[in-house]
Amino acid sequence: MNVYDGERMAELMAAEGMTATDDPDRADLVVLNTCHIRDRATEKVYSDIGRLRKNARVNERTAPMIAVAGCVAQAEGDEIVRRAHVDVVVGPQAYHNLPALVASAAAGTPSLDTDMPLLSKFGALPARRRVGPSAFLTVQEGCDKFCTYCVVPYTRGAEVSRPFAAIVDEAKALVDAGAREITLLGQNVNAWDDDGRGLHDLIRVLDRIPGLARIRYTTSHPNDMRQGLIDAHGDVESLMPFLHLPVQAGSDRVLKAMNRNHDTASYLRLLDRVRAVRPDIALSGDFIVGFPGETEAEFAETLRLVDAVGYAQAYSFKYSPRPGTPAADMAGAIPEVVMDERLQRLQAALGRDQQAFNQASVGRSCDVLIERRGKLPGQMLGKSPWLQSIHLMTDAAIGDMVSVDLLSAGPVSLAGAERVRVAA
Ligand code: SAH
Ligand code: SF4
């Protein structure tokens, strides 16, 4: 979602006549779009600000104007202005005001906007113009679930769904601007609803947009996984066979302490229902190790769950206490060395499963959406329906869909060979 927000902020500033640069040391304005989900992401903001200023001194140029956007801006507000003397602080629900905030900072007043008006930002953003073959589209934001470790409900605010028509319009604009794949985004994207219509109704309408070949969505929550969405996986051809469904832990006691409101058995039953309609679905998840009080036996239950599911890929994190969340005050902090060791074991298991999943694809053929050039001349990179990275030699262009035989599997990608061109 931060990638999506970053693109939208760049489009806003482009409408003001600014041009984007990849070199922060040449920029007049640097927008740091920040993440507050774990402590390390937050600390990075302050070190980035320090580095930008230092480079300006070394290069003997005026330091760029610095705007801090995103969830660190939302959570720390004034504190950032005090601690780092930045020019603009803007929260994730207020960034449509970025041009005005920059203008006022340019006139000499540091400016701050961390208001959370519901949805007004989307209406104030410029139309989508040029995008790559795979584009993001935010359909839902915020969270009402209040898992005890998580800052999202505080930084992104309450669950809000964008209206059906606005999403369909943006999807059409994205396709006109070059997208062949759209990933629908939300903190709990499957909680999206508009007047009784759910995410599956939206997907079925998007499926009919000419030129849109692939639809994905992320991140979904187990408790919002309705039968309609499961059914869509069985019969909507453009809905890709991939499901990111975080579970966080394999111990029911830990899940309860996390306030997840699901247990491992209900999670596994859900996956069975999805696999019943789409047996080849690639599963992905999120895991936290070292939640306060997590015992070795409880952690072993996470490893067992991983074994039972066989994920195609997954993300795993060490628990990071976040200010203001209930878990931050819980007893039983797990020492860093124990967390490190658990994370290592978990990632070894997940890595093995990812490799096995990729290995099992060898010998199959599938469509690959070409997304960018590879390192070698003539080599292109793209994604399989199961979100695997595929590299192949081809004269196909970025945005082409090619039919590919999968030849061999590495730990994180596969090599393929082109069969016949499906579409130009
Ligand atoms: N809404 C999604 C997840 C969004 S946050 C869901 O609940 O499924 C993305 C991931 O960051 C979470 O799934 C979790 O694994 C991780 N995360 C969130 N807060 C964390 C914390 N305090 N410490 C470590 N990992 C955290
Ligand atoms: Fe955070 Fe996801 Fe839980 Fe919401 S459901 S509080 S975003 S982990």
Explain briefly what this protein structure is.
Catalyzes the methylthiolation of N6-(dimethylallyl)adenosine (i(6)A), leading to the formation of 2-methylthio-N6-(dimethylallyl)adenosine (ms(2)i(6)A) at position 37 in tRNAs that read codons beginning with uridine. Helices cover 36% and strands 23% of the residues. It is α/β, with parallel strands linked by helices and 424 residues long.
**Quaternary class:** single chain
* Poorly predicted parts: none
Number of domains: 4
State the total count of DSSP E strands.
19
Which outline best applies?
globular
Largest sheet, strands/sense/barrel: 5 strands, mixed, barrel
Number of helices: 14
| Hetero compounds | S-adenosyl-L-homocysteine, iron/sulfur cluster
Q: Regarding CATH, which class of the largest domain?
A: Alpha Beta
**First-residue to last-residue Cα separation:** 29 Å
What is the CATH architecture term of the largest domain? 2-Layer Sandwich
Average pLDDT over all residues:
94
Instruction: Please give the share of residues in helix.
Output: 25-40%
